[in-house]
Amino acid sequence: MKIRLDRDLPVSLSQQLRGQLEYGIAGGELPPGSQLPSVRELAAQLGIAMVTVSQVYKELQGAGLLESQPGRGTFVADGGLGTAQHQERTLELQRQIDALIGLAERLGVSKAELAAMVSARLGRYRASVPLNLSFVGIFPEATRAYVAHLRSVLEPGDQIEATVLQQLEADPKLLRAARRCDLVVTTANRKTQVQGLLGSKVPVVGVGFIPSERTRLALAELSPRTRLGALSTFPEFLPTLKAGVERFASHLDLLLTAVLGDTESVSQLIKSCDVIVYATGSESILEGLPESIRAFEYRHIPDPRSVERDLLPVLGRIREAKAALATHS
């Protein structure tokens, strides 16, 4: 993952570094178990003080996103099954599948017949064990949109509810309901926080996110003459937002940037731009915005690769466990 600090932004370098690392973890560019550069290496690479990098690493370790391994370095925390353990289980499963294929050949069962039999058995498992899930997000509207997106990968009988982290922290009833779920899903960078809130007995999975196709197309279709501005909800994510906008609208210049809550810079943004792309959580910019200014959200969606890699295998294991429990009860 390439980190770029922008000294022209009204955001401290430490905030920029933390935001980009956290965004990389949330988006899957820094998957669990990946190693980060040493403090000295990253400081030299970015041209900043080692104490700045060290402090950011410590903050992210405190948040449960990074872990330091003595003698080895700093790694993205493994939010679930350890990488080595996961590989071991995968290899064991592959061996069992190979054994099943060999048995089918000895019994004269064709590959097509075997595939149909396995598919039918899996269908029986899925049909008999619907799951109850909760997705924990930060902003209500975006969280509901994420839930709607995830429903497409769930089985018909599954239930998934949208829950906002702030409400979960404040409402004991919501917290109890979440703890009764078969699985709680959240963003990769919030997994440790949500797990700490729910307790170790509740399975929690973090998934990565990517900019939606609608966002990418909206930026790519802008006229080269557009006076474009970007509004970030949080200061630490402003560099990441700016980089994303510049990536998908590389045919024009980003005129201004601002952070929600900075009245002066937001006012200047509105005066100087005819199109504003705003981060999720900055919808208040729409209130009282002149009709001459177009504004749209820099919306994310669950990364299909992360869903397939991180979520679906866990759902399968929980389904199998519930099916086995139901069979023996």
UniProtKB/TrEMBL annotation:
Q: Which InterPro entries match?
A: Tscrpt_reg_HTH_GntR, WH-like_DNA-bd_sf, WH_DNA-bd_sf
**Location of the HTH gntR-type domain:** 11-79
Top-level division of the source organism's lineage? Bacteria
| An example Gene Ontology molecular-function term | DNA binding
Please tell me whether the keyword Protein transport is annotated for this protein: no
Print the keywords alphabetically: DNA-binding, Transcription, Transcription regulation
Q: Does the keyword Transcription apply?
A: yes
Q: What is the protein's given name?
A: HTH-type transcriptional repressor YvoA
Cite the source lineage.
Answer: Bacteria, Thermotogati, Deinococcota, Deinococci, Thermales
